[in-house]
Amino acid sequence: MTVSAFAHKLTADSGILRLMDDLGRPLPDGVIPRKLGGGNPARIPEVEKLYRREMEALLAREDSFEEAISRYDAPQGRISFIRTLAEFFTAEYGWDIDERNIAITNGSQPAFFYPFNMFSGQKPERKTILFPLVPEYVGYADQGIDPDTFVTLPARIQVEAGNRFKYHIDIPLVEAYLANHPETGAMCVSRPTNPTGNVLTNAEIAALSDLAKRYNIPLMVDNAYGMPFPDIIFPDMLDGTPAPHWDRNTILSMSLSKIGLPALRTGIIVAEESIIESLGALNSIVALASGSLGQVLAEGLIQSGELKQCAVSCVRPFYRNKSARAQSYIDEFFSGREYLLHRSEGSLFLWLYLGDISLTSEELYRKLKEQGVVVVPGEYFFFGREQGSEAETAWKTHPHRNRCLRLNYAESAETVREGLRMIARISAEYRK
Question: Is residue 297 located within the same domain as residue 379?
Answer without folding.
Answer: no
